[in-house]
Design a protein that fits this description.
alpha+beta, 2 strands, 3 helices, 80 residues, two-stranded antiparallel sheet
């Protein structure tokens, strides 16, 4: 019964986070990336400008990640 209660509490927390941050999964042949979007793009009324802002933010996110220790550690994972 305790496991069921914990599971229900986790589901409620997941629902809360889903409402707080919409999630997006991007997939190519090589990568699946799940993102929680913290920025509120609804304030940008023009569709094309909103899309451009999101794509620019995504590019900046990837550039920033490329400069981190985590990205170095990930690439080292594939070393012999």
């Amino acid at each position: 019964m305790q496991e069921l209660t914990n599971s229900m509490e986790e589901d409620k927390m997941d629902d809360f986070l889903d409402e707080l941050y919409p999630e997006l999964t991007l997939e190519t042949d090589d990568i699946i990336m799940s993102l929680a979007i913290k920025k509120d793009y609804s304030k940008i009324k023009d569709f094309n400008k909103r899309k451009e802002e999101f794509i620019n933010d995504l590019k900046a996110f990837i550039e920033e990640f490329s400069q981190t220790q985590e990205s170095d550690d990930f690439v080292r994972y594939y070393e012999d």
